[in-house]
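Moderator note: this is an archived Q&A kept for reference. The question asked for a predicted structure of one protein chain; the sequence and the answer are reproduced below.
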Amino acid sequence: MSRVPLPYSQKILELFRNPKNLGKMEDATVSAVAGNPQCGDMITFYLKINEEDVIEKATFESYGCAANIATSSIVTERVKGMKLEDAWKITWKSVAEEVGGLPAVKFHCGILAVGALRRAIRAYYKMKGQKPEWLPEELTFEEKQALEEEELAKILAKKMKMAEEGSKNV
């Protein structure tokens, strides 16, 4: 049985072959993970932020498909030089447009990329003990989607620990 290839745009294919800003950033100010347990896509965003809350550098690591890599690449390119407040306003729909569109089954890749960015921004302000007025109290849709993998990992770790403890008592 053969699989039909997804209708990826030329931009997605180019960024998949030649991603921008790929790799771990050792001196990052903050990092954040996003993932989707249903498809297996995982990304980690790294941001280097200066005293004026401007993103000086952004990189990512990815375990995922071409759309995951392309959308992460686009987001890291877009945010360089942006103030955090402006970076927060990036939407997954604008990211999808910038890569030439995403197949419907890959919309979640744009959502995860924006979710990872927003999680990193929120983590930065939490680390500083600040909460700017523009930062919403409630998690955004993108942030909630980015948390799925983390929540699943916690549940699995708890179940594994319980199973391990149960086998010791036998």
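Archived answer notes: The chain has a mean pLDDT of 88.
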